[in-house]
């Protein structure tokens, strides 16, 4: 159906507003994700770097993790380590921020952006 008046239809205005909202929401989620990732990485290093060299090793992390209430087995602790370290022997805060394997989506869940559309 054509628009004989040449004016924008309400649907196109809604589409534009929706696009603006989607862009804003996406940007906000990106910022939240980056901040959460930074906090997560900092906490992993700060809480587990026993020799204060700026790195956390597999041994340091699994030993500290096993001292808590969970996980119950070394294999569970190792699986958690491998999830965010990508199987590396040691990681730094920067490694966790830059390496896709270190992203917190593997550790604390994914923000489902489709729920906001």
Automatic annotation (TrEMBL):
Residues 31-42 have a biased composition (Polar residues). Residues 1-52 are annotated as: Disordered. It comes from the Bacteria. Residues 9-30 have a biased composition (Low complexity). This is EF-hand domain-containing protein.
């Amino acid at each position: 159906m054509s628009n004989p008046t040449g004016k924008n239809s309400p649907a196109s205005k809604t589409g534009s507003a929706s696009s603006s909202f989607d862009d804003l929401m996406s940007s906000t989620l990106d910022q939240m994700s980056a901040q959460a990732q930074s906090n997560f990485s900092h906490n992993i290093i700060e809480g587990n770097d026993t020799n204060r060299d700026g790195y956390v090793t597999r041994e340091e992390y699994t030993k500290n993790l096993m001292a808590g209430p969970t996980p119950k087995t070394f294999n569970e602790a190792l699986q958690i380590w491998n999830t965010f370290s990508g199987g590396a022997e040691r990681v730094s805060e920067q490694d966790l921020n830059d390496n896709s394997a270190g992203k917190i989506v593997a550790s604390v869940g994914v923000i489902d952006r489709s729920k906001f559309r």
